[in-house]
Design a protein that fits this description.
alpha/beta, three-stranded antiparallel sheet, about 25% helix, globular
Length: about 270
């Protein structure tokens, strides 16, 4: 990877505060996320003229986008859409995060988003390393830093969380957890298939103005209890090391995922 001269924000390593919002049903959770996205889109466009957002894959596009595709208040032409990580597969492959977002948002818009606003993985790249560098180049061309010598500052990054605590393609115990120079890194040995991927790194995640994690389903309840409530022994889970430049990490969770949390003691937003 070609090094980039950036100063990673300290907040990316350990958020100072977890903030939680719980939806009683999947539909309510989707509405909550949609409102959150729309509010930050409007604020960013008012302040800076455009809105930059990064989506993870998995179940996130379905949960995050269910309520916004028909929102007439959103200025889609002023969005710049990125992917927090991507699998090195053709864009029409079932494992493609681009395909998932296309199905749950892009194809549902009544006014199509300009293709130049959507920064997808370059499937023509000869290697994952080349794909990561091309993605980093596209990122720096479209998303400006908040201050000199810092990474590009997304307006919003929406992350998922695996049952092993990974987020983006940053997996427990992997060397990429310590990457501090590249904006976008490649991975050849993902413990979760497919093995070849590209991913945003902690310096980029930590430079974002807003970072939120979407976690739904009872399969996440034990892990969320460890992270948000009871604590745990051993190294931090990768998702715990994510956070905005202000040091906060917001959580959108449903009631099954929250089943083992003491919600009365949880800070909310």
């Amino acid at each position: 990877l070609r090094p980039c001269l950036i100063r990673p924000p300290a907040a990316s390593d350990m958020p100072g505060k977890h903030l939680v919002r719980v939806g009683k049903t999947a539909d309510q959770l989707s509405q909550q996320i949609g409102t959150y996205i729309a509010e930050h889109s409007a604020a960013a466009i008012k302040a800076r003229g455009r809105f930059s957002i990064g989506f993870s894959g998995g179940s996130l596009p379905k949960l995050a986008c269910g309520a916004i595709a028909t929102d007439s208040s959103i200025e889609w032409a002023k969005w710049d859409v990125f992917f927090v990580d991507e699998r090195c597969v053709p864009l029409d492959h079932n494992d493609s995060n681009f395909k998932s977002l296309q199905e749950h948002l892009l194809d549902k818009l009544s006014t199509p988003m300009p293709l130049t606003n959507i920064v997808a993985y370059d499937a023509t790249s000869p290697t994952p390393e080349a794909a990561a560098q091309r993605y980093a180049d596209a990122l720096t061309a479209k998303v400006q830093p908040a201050s000199p010598n810092t990474p590009p500052a997304f307006d919003l990054l929406l992350l998922g969380m695996g049952e092993d605590g990974h987020t983006a393609s940053l997996f427990p115990g992997h060397a990429l957890l310590e990457e501090r120079t590249a904006l976008v890194a490649h991975i050849l040995d993902s413990p979760k298939p497919p093995p070849q991927r590209i991913t945003l790194t902690y310096p980029v995640i930590g430079a974002a103005r807003e970072v939120a994690v979407v976690a739904a389903g009872g399969g996440k309840a034990d892990l969320l209890s460890q992270i948000l409530d009871k604590g745990h022994e051993g190294p931090e889970y990768p998702v715990e090391r994510a956070g905005s430049r202000e040091g906060t990490l917001k959580w959108f969770i449903d009631e099954p995922a929250a089943a083992k949390l003491d919600l009365a003691a949880m800070p909310t937003f």
